[in-house]
Each structure stands twice: as structure tokens, then as C-alpha cells.
Amino acid sequence: MNRHCSSNEALSAYLDGELGGNRRAEFERHLAACALCQEALHNFQCLRACFQSLPHQEIGYDLAPALLAGAKPRTAPTWRHRCSLWQLLPTSFAAAATISLGIFLGTSLVGTPDAGAATPPPSLAMFDLLPPGSVCVGSFAGCYPEGKI
Predict the structure, then answer these.
(1) Is residue 25 part of a domain?
(2) Distance CA 90, CA 93 (A)
(3) Is residue 43 part of a domain?
(4) pLDDT at 90 over 50
(5) What is the number of domains present in the chain?
(6) Has residue 19 been placed in a domain?
(7) By residue range, what is the domain housing residue 29?
């Protein structure tokens, strides 16, 4: 099929006899001139013949009634849980306390360093490459400036 050819859906619809009169006549004219569509149609016909040659097997039991009996229709719940303001009050206080504590701890950790100080506040020393009081050895020999050691 070239870029102007019909899709596989049109070929399948033609094979199944689902194309209307005008569309079918137009497709048959195209099919007479296009070798690629003829080959694709032949492949669909072979595939159809293969599927039709498969044996039809019966399972011996109709599952539809069993499935329909087990399926319960969904219904909306008959009760609705309502929260009163008094039930939400403890949760609101807990949320406000958590946010307040987070803001307090965040500002105390970062703090406001002095304008002239080049060193970070002592509370941020835990984020340095080496923990406070450790010995700088090997490749870390230049990790701290002279005045800081």
C-alpha cells in the first residue's frame, strides 16, 4: 500500500462486506490497480480462513448466569458521615501547632548571621564535609581555611 492507499480498516471492512455501495465500488476500482492492496487483501483472506478452520470448542457450562448472579449492582451509600466543627477542632489545632513548630525550628536553624561573619552559624556545622571536631587528613587537607582549623 502506498501513501494514497486505504487503511487496513478499509480492507477489513471490504472483506467483511461492510462497505456501502459507492464506497465499495470506489474501493474495488482502487483494488484493481493496486498490487499492494491486493496482496494485503489476500493476506487478510488467508488469516480469515485460518481462524475459521480452528475447531469450535464448547466449555460445557454456561458462565453467564453465574457471573450475573455474583455481580451486585453498585448503590450509593445510605449513610453519610458528617463532621461537625467540634470534631475538626483538634485536627486544626494540631496542624497549626505543626506549622508553627516547623517555622520556629527552621528560623532557629538558619538564623541571621552577623554581617561581618564569614562562618556559618554553629547549628549548620553538621552540614559541613567533615563533622565538627574531626581531623582533616589526606585529600581533605585543604578543606578548611587556615584560620578555621
Answers:
(1) yes
(2) 5
(3) yes
(4) yes
(5) 1
(6) yes
(7) 1-53
